[in-house]
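Dear colleagues,

As part of the handover before I leave the project, I'm documenting each prediction I ran so the next person doesn't have to rerun anything. This entry is a single chain, and its sequence is reproduced below.
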Amino acid sequence: MDPALEVSHLRKIYRGGTVAVDDLSLDIAPGDFFGFLGPNGAGKSTTIHCICGIATPSSGTIKIFGVDAVKDYRAARRLVGLSPQEFNVDEFATVSQILDFVGGYFGLNAHQRKVRAELLIEKFDLSQHAKKRFRQLSGGLKRRAVLARALMHDPKLLILDEPTAGVDVELRLDLWRYLQELNAEGKTIVLTSHYLEEIERLCRTIAIVNHGRIVRNAPKRDFIGEAGGVEEAYLKATGAKPDHLAAAAGA
């Protein structure tokens, strides 16, 4: 069986010479809940952009369930749903309109779009808000709507970039429940987050990226079996120092 995601020796160099991703490789098994950690600027978003076709790799290969993400972009893109950190939607469109548009983009006919949108609106408790403009929604409801949009074409691989940023505790727990349900149904999920508790709670495999390279990649049990758990492993892998933390705490 092909990996859900296979990234081999990925490099991305932007104009001006900035190396955002440097020889990054990883495999994600079908059905995994994969945590992708790293400090700001480590290369997480660039890697995601290359996977989704937003950015073109400088070298290396990306395969999604065996489909080359560069050579066969259209087929690969249909396999991926992206819930980005930023709300890149028409703020004057309603939730229903946003879902309908994305369904059309991926080739669903009118009946298919209607059925799929209604299912997602119900699943994410958006029924009372379906006719509201996106700009009228609270932060938590916006997160739900963007997640529903990512799932509109029923992708096999779901990528979530900081899906609970700015969300209160109650709504964060709701989103965790939704994600666990999706994963239990067989959806492969890649999650980036700065909330280590979130990664530890949800993920089965964790990779840490720093300076564009994978510096640690292991099952979660390996991390939590060490002294200090995921947090200590993250600090060691990224080169953070205890005195940095102490200075920050005293600031």
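The longest helix spans residues 169-184. The radius of gyration is 18 Å.

All the best with the project,
I.
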